[in-house]
Amino acid sequence: MIGLSDSELIKYFKNGNEGAFEDLFRRYEALVAKIARKYCVPGYEAEDFYQVGAVAFYKAVLSYDENVNSTFYGYVLPCIRNEIVSQFRKQLLLIEYATDFEEITTVLESCEIHTIEKSEIVDEEYDNLLHAYRAELAELLSERKILSPLEKKCLEGFIGGLSYLEIAQEHGIAIKKVDNALMRIRAKIRSRGVGD
């Protein structure tokens, strides 16, 4: 199937040929990886963004219509990029630096990432997203038996705008314990579908 066009492979796949999808994905795998490597936030690596891009690719294959869209490449590229950028923004709002854009910029620079500009997140949109996440976090905190006592303490500090260091000092624990607790909380949030 190597000599087939993207559109032909998509038709074969939609008719039940799984191998056609694998061949098509191999053509675009490097593109997905290249986009994913541009993004990095603490606790969410390029491999995680690669997985997001791969899922976006799969959805794009299913929704592609050659009668409406010019080329598959022209269609799939923004699908992959938009999904990864969307996940990138969500992750930024779940880390301790999400209370202030300048601190986010510092995190990005520390990762050597320069893919986001302040103009990309309108202040009002940013404030609305942050408010929505904090509301979800507060709701999670109020539910019983979802968070451990340590996770609740760390989340309370996070919602209150404390840094990892300040949370650690307040409760007499190591910063790594705070980081681990907040990572577990993020996993629980994702399992509940928050931010999807």
* Count of DSSP-assigned helices: 9
* Overall form: elongated
Using DSSP, what is the number of strands? 0
- How helical, in percent, are the residues? 55-70%
β-strand amount: under 5%
- Strand count, sense and closure of the main sheet? none
What are the segments in which pLDDT stays under 50 over at least 5 consecutive residues? Answer: 96-122
Mean pLDDT: 75
How widely separated are the two ends? 35 Å
SSE string, helices as H and strands as E: HHHHHHHHH
Describe this structure in words.
- The protein has 196 residues and is mainly alpha-helical.
- Helices cover 68% and strands 0% of the residues.
List keywords for this structure.
196 residues, mainly alpha
Topology (elements, then pairings):
Blueprint: H1 6-14, H2 18-36, H3 46-63, H4 72-92, H5 101-110, H6 123-142, H7 149-159, H8 164-171, H9 175-191
Helix pairs in contact: 1-2, 2-3, 2-4, 3-4, 6-7, 7-8, 7-9, 8-9
Q: Nutshell version of this structure?
A:
68% of the residues lie in helices and 0% in strands. With 196 residues, it is mostly helical.
